[in-house]
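Design job #97: recover the sequence.
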C-alpha cells in the first residue's frame, strides 16, 4: 500500500491528531521509513496550511480538512494517487492551487492520478477523461468504450 495514496471524499482525518501528525501518519506506519519533515513542511506551505499545523480537524473548515487529506495522501510520494472529489469543498482559487500541486507532484514524483470529479472544468484539464453516463463508460467525446 506504500505506493498508493488515497484522498477520501469525507477526508477521514484522525480527530485526535493535529494537522501535521495527520499528514505524517502514513509515513509513520511504514516501518523503517523516516518521516521527511522538510517535504511535509513544503506540502503544508504549498497548500496554505503551515500556520494550521498544530490545529485539530475540528478546528478547520471543510476546505482546510480537504487540503490536509490531500497532503496526507502525498506524504509518502506514492506512485498512484486515488482521489475522490479532491476539490469538492474548495473555492475556485484553492481548487486551481490544488490542481497545480497535483500536476507538479505527478511530474516530480512520476505519479499517476486517478480522480473522480463532477467538475467538468477539472476533468477537461486532465490528460485523459472517461465519463460514466447511464451506467456506461464513455470516452472523451461521448463514444462508448469497448
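Job complete. Output follows.
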Amino acid at each position: 500500500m506504500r505506493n498508493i495514496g488515497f484522498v477520501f471524499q469525507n477526508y477521514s482525518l484522525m480527530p485526535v491528531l493535529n494537522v501535521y501528525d495527520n499528514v505524517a501518519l502514513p509515513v509513520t506506519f511504514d516501518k523503517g521509513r523516516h518521516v521527511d519533515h522538510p517535504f511535509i513542511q513544503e506540502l503544508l506551505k504549498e497548500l496554505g496550511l503551515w500556520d494550521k499545523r498544530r490545529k485539530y480537524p475540528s478546528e478547520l473548515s471543510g476546505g482546510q480538512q480537504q487540503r490536509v487529506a490531500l497532503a496526507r495522501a502525498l506524504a509518502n510520494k506514492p506512485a498512484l494517487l486515488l482521489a475522490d472529489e479532491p476539490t469538492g469543498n474548495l473555492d475556485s482559487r484553492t481548487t486551481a492551487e490544488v490542481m497545480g500541486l497535483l500536476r507538479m507532484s505527478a511530474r516530480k514524483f512520476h505519479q499517476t492520478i486517478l480522480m473522480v470529479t463532477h467538475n467538468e472544468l477539472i476533468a477537461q484539464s486532465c490528460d485523459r477523461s472517461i465519463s460514466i453516463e447511464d451506467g456506461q463508460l464513455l470516452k472523451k467525446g461521448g463514444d462508448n468504450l469497448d
